[in-house]
Each structure stands twice: as C-alpha cells, then as structure tokens.
Specification:
This protein is α+β, with helices and mostly antiparallel strands. It is 24% helix and 27% strand. It is built from three helices and seven strands. The strands form two sheets. A five-stranded antiparallel β-sheet has the order 1-2-3-6-7. The protein is globular, with a radius of gyration of 15 Å. The structure holds nickel (II) ion (NI).
Amino acid sequence: MPEILPLAQQGEAILQQVALPVSDFSDPQLPCLVANMLATLQAAKGVGLAAPQVFIPLRIIIVASHPNQRYPNAPHMAPQPMLNPQIIWRSSEQSLGEEGCLSVPQQRAKLWRDYAIRVRYQDLTAQWHEQHYEDFIARIVQHECDHLDGVLFPERYQQQAATPT
Ligand code: NI
C-alpha cells in the first residue's frame, strides 16, 4: 500500500537544496517513492508535488492538474510523474496566475510564468518523453521544476516584485 509521506514546510533546508538527478532506475525503491508521492499529493488534494517536498533530494515531480477548491478552473489530467524533467523550450508569452504550495500553505500570490513550455523527462523505465503544456499545467511544471532547484514561489514573487517588467 502506498504511504502518505510528511510534507516539508518552508524554512526546512531540503526545500532550498538543488536536487540530484535520478540515475539508478533499477532501484526497487524508485516505483515505491513515486507511488507514495502520488498518494501524498492526492491526500493533500494538490495539483503538483516535487520529491524534495517529501524530504527526498531527487529530481522527480508529479503534475496532476484537476479542478478543486483552490483552482476551480484547472484542467483535468491523469497524474504524470516526471523523472529528471528539463524545460527545453519556453514561449515568449507569459501569463499571470495565482499560485500556492503544499510547503507554503498560508500564502498565495499572483506570479508571472511562461505561458507555454516543452518539457523533456524520463519515466520509471528511464525512457525519455517530450510534452508540450500550456497555461495552468505549464505553470505547475514550472513551479515543480523550481522546487528541484531549491526555489519556492514566494522567492519568485519577490524577484518579480523587484524587477520592473
Ligand atoms: Ni510547491
């Protein structure tokens, strides 16, 4: 049975670290970790989760957009785990949208993100995939990839507030 994992909260060191690439795809713990991340994300009714948020310093995210109380207009998608995700293309167009984070539960902010992206990632069998996302799902991918580089959305917000556009 998948396990619900504890969620790291803002201020914990793991959330500020750069996560390591997944390299050992034969590790039997890897599918368990992804299943546990999915259970944790669903229990928290979240739309995305990165491994550092459950105290695992690896480059793994799950993107799982669905309409909920926090994001009533979010599109439905099957939860998508991505290992070693890389954003390989970004649109020049940006969009402003509200974000929150399971690791920063008391805050929300309107942030600029690239409107569309192309992401390259591996699945649990190490096979590479590429996917184009727009709007809210592209926003989730950018938010989760930030987690892999030790960046939380309030820091992005501060950067944007300090930079004239
Ligand atoms: Ni987050």
